[in-house]
Amino acid sequence: xxxxxxxxxxxxxxxxxxxxxxxxxxxxxxxxxxxxxxxxxxxxxxxxxxxxxxxxxxxxxxxxxxxxxxxxxxxxxxxxxxxxxxxxxxxxxxxxxxxxxxxxxxxxxxxxxxxxxxxxxxxxxxxxxxxxxxxxxxxxxxxxxxxxxxxxxxxxxxxxxxxxxxxxxxxxxxxxxxxxxxxxxxxxxxxxxxxxxxxxxxxxxxxxxxxxxxxxxxxxxxxxxxxxxxxx
Length: 232
Prior knowledge:
CATH architecture of the largest domain: 3-Layer(aba) Sandwich
Shape: globular
Helix content: 40-55%
CATH superfamily of the largest domain: HAD superfamily/HAD-like
Structural class: alpha/beta
Number of helices: 10
CATH topology of the largest domain: Rossmann fold
Radius of gyration: 18 Å
Strand content: 5-15%
Largest sheet: 6 strands, parallel
Order of helices and strands: EEHHHHEHEHEHEHEHEH
Distance between the termini: 33 Å
Number of domains: 2
């Protein structure tokens, strides 16, 4: 059986920065607060909505204000994410190729679960994901391994037979915590120096490079997983 491939969503499959920034700034502005540049918002994302809101809000913001901002963010994002979210070039073709080769595919995101499911189903209708999980109440978000382990169980695979593919050091930590291998992509929110320092098993600069990697289980492909890609 082939390895299961667990993809992050934001910064890995889709560029959602403009949509997130627009909804965040709408929510902040509605509460009379300072708004942020897209580049600043880039540094806020990755750990779920609550931490996004906390990072973007004044240090002295109380819980009631944070709840209001979060509620306004979600309401705005629900209506507008389609206009601020694009699929990275080559991603659809990559997923279709991996699917045709028999790899079990899944998505694990810190984006709220309803948004994750809606985004994946609308943007990738040709891809049959075995599992799509976003952040859910009562379930710790990445880098806690709970979601990744839930997916490996759903795929009927051991954690050692799964790869986590993402753009952030948090995805690498998730893989480590779950006993999985990690592929880091360089086109997302974290630069390659941070990804290298975090110890990714593989590093790729273009989606098609994933098709060249040795992603087979050890019993069919040997125990060597290859060197980190450092083209750039």
